[in-house]
Amino acid sequence: MTKIIKITVAILICTCTSGYSQTYVGYKTDWNGNIFDGYFDPIIYSPENKLTEIFNVESYEIGHYYNRSGSKVRGLIKFKGDKILFKNGEGEFRDKIKPEEVQGFVIGVDSFFVISKYFNQNTLKDKPDYAQFISEFGDMTFAKHYHFRKMYSSGQSPIVETYLVKEKGSEFWQNFPDNKYFKEKALKYFSDIPSLKEKITSGQYEYNNILSIIKTAEYYEKYHNDEPILYDKYWQETGNIENAFFYSKIVEKKDSLWNLDYYNIEDTIKLYSATYSSFYPNIKNGIFESYYPNGYIRQEIIYEDNDPKEVKIYNQKGNLKKYYKYIETNTYGAQNKVEYISIIDSTGTNILESNNYTEINEYDQLNNTTHTNIFRKNTLVSSYRIGEDSDTIFQITDDRYNFKIKRLQKKFTNHINQYFYDEALSVNAQGFLLIHFVLDDRGNVVDYSLLNEIHPQINGLVNNFIKYYLFNKRAFRPYKKNRVKRYSEFVAPVEFSINRYYRQPVNYYHLNHLHMHMHHQRMMNNFNPPASPMGY
């Protein structure tokens, strides 16, 4: 016997002061099938299909340098390897500043200082040169040096990166060799950390993992000293408290698993709790929890090697509301397959247990609308709402629907490449921008909105792209429900990443690591080295 059960679940807006941490977007689904049960969490959002714009740039950034007397000079800085270019403002005359003229400089989230007496390819260099600060803990300081080749053959990068370490009391910077001697050198500095010793000895960690090794050792030190990890508004780690919007504390370390709690820098309200098995790239293994401002858990996701497996959604009183799993499927299409385990009503009853057909109404206060979700056993087969003009608008839940993302990406790239966005680049602005589209029954974009913000310049570029190429145009195929063309809606994610040769992109996580590493290498290969490199 088929029964219809109706319950009403209110999704209420919580005012968060945490900036880019938890943005209320309402009840929506992106074109991958990822579900937004009220909130967008940039720290964990990693969609497989997205529009992308990767800025491979050498642009100026807001920063400052310290002259030889220690005075701070603010302005716009561009790092060129053996020198920096400095301007007081846009359009101003630029100065070329060499290492012997300054103590160091800061651009974005990166700090550089002047070194000498360092080893590069077993050769001692004693002329002053710039090096990028990586980390400092215990009696060790770690840095990264960039050597710009005058000549290089096909397949070689014009930039040689060398990781350096200097022990307290030593005059010399030692390098980590990219050869068979790496293991011996790495164990010299990191063998006191059991998990690192095991991975280095077994060969699981090699030279290419040196940044992960250094950051793991740094976090190990922070854990024992109860020190925070700081992040800017775009969730990029920073050492400058003035630029910090968020911070995390390592609350537990067991074997190779690390438990971190995340907070807004302005208060003690917990935002997230996460379990990682490695850093840089950050790989989630275990439970990731998100919290309401009142302290109750909002969402719990179980990860295996950064892949989400199970999701639990809670109401603002901490009671379980939904529980679903992601299941693997070979079905054609971009969307994830979701199997619902339970939908809990106000009495605490799982209404999916004994019903072939379940209808649930969810009120979305953001848009002042009610979404009707229809389940057949454990599968969401339909989700719709009534629009302002009394049109029934369906969320696209059919994994066979083709969004033609590649074609859209080509248009997007052609549009973005026509413009400059130096202001956004100067403040290191990057991340995901979510676009909510509404289509009519012919596939025309009849309404849209940006659900979050990155930077006014980037927001404006995306808004102009939609107006010029998509709005009031037949940009997508009509969505059919029961073979009838219907109004529909979905969320399209757009990712903006900045790829400089001295900085990894902000989303330095496992799912994008190889993809972004490819662009990082391409950027380095296309980089024009200084005409006359100095110091070599």
UniProtKB/TrEMBL annotation:
Domain of life: Bacteria
Record-given protein name: TonB C-terminal domain-containing protein
Organism field: Marivirga aurantiaca
